[in-house]
Amino acid sequence: MPMTAITVSDVSKTFGKTRALDKVSVTVDRGEMVALIGASGSGKSTLIRHIAGLETADAAGGRIEVLGDLCQNGGRLNRRLKRGRVSVIFQQFNLVGRLSVLTNVLIGHLGRTPRWRGTLGLFNRDEKLKAQAALERVGIPQVISQRSSTLSGGQQQRAAIARTLVQEAEILIADEPISALDPSSARRVMDVLSDINAKDGITVVVSLHQVEYARRYCPRTIAMRDGRIVYDGPSSALTNEFLAELYGAASEELVLPDAPAGHPAPVASAPTSRTLQAEALPA
């Protein structure tokens, strides 16, 4: 049986009077590439932040395990959890604009180098070669000496992915990494994520705002609405008609204009057998 990368059990999160997560339970196996979709306010970014250990659940209950280690339980983070096994890519890229692309990628080494070396920016030859190889892997070796602020949005996102390769994370979580990119740049970023998943076996969970990318790149999709999981199954089943049943008028946020109704999503990484789940929600 595949080993589990992420286990979320009965997790809830409340912000004021808003129930952002409502007893969410889900598992992701090692080596999967999974899309997380939902209209604005569905809870997908909140779920990602919980898995990454950036947010704590309500104290009433809920448990999250990552790669077999307890991440949080009952609203408390495990402070002794080993960091660096999970890397998060955000929509905003999180690069230091005044630093070179090489230095930004080298930052991925900080979890495994002495603090004094990292503070002074003293990276050795092997670390620099690994950063260079990571930039080649994501297709932008030519920008290695440029300031990060001079890159296009798509290039910045690929530099952020190169930093995660240097970090040697086992799980890569991407929170809407292509929402601010043009279609061509978005495809390049998704191609890179798919290649990393297929060739390196890194587990990838990617939050997406358009379902077309889930259909094309991710064998499995988890759909959220109002803080709950309303579908967990093959991405190929997410036709425009089915999305309309799940989301009503809000489904228009998830489908690009003139997009096809849906098609199988052949991806290099092997899909995991799952039971299709669809839940009818009250209007």
What's a concise summary of this model?
By secondary structure, the protein is α/β, with parallel strands linked by helices.
Topology:
Layout lengths: L3 E12 L2 E12 L3 E5 L6 H8 L11 E4 L2 E5 L2 E2 L8 E5 L10 H6 L8 H6 L4 H13 L15 H15 L3 E5 L7 H18 L2 E6 L2 H7 L2 E6 L2 E7 L5 H8 L29 E2 L5
Parallel strand pairs: 3-9, 3-10, 7-8, 8-9
Antiparallel strand pairs: 1-2, 1-4, 4-5, 5-6, 10-11, 11-12
Characterization of this structure:
This protein has 283 residues and is of the alpha/beta class. The protein contains 8 helices and 12 strands. The protein has a 7-stranded mixed sheet, with helices on both faces. The protein has a 5-stranded antiparallel sheet with strand order 2-1-4-5-6, covered by helices on one side. β4 (63-66) and β5 (69-73) form a beta hairpin. α5 packs parallel to α6 (183-200). The longest helix has 18 residues, at 183-200. The chain is globular, with a radius of gyration of 19 Å. The N and C termini lie far apart (39 Å). Mean pLDDT is 83; it is low at 258-283.
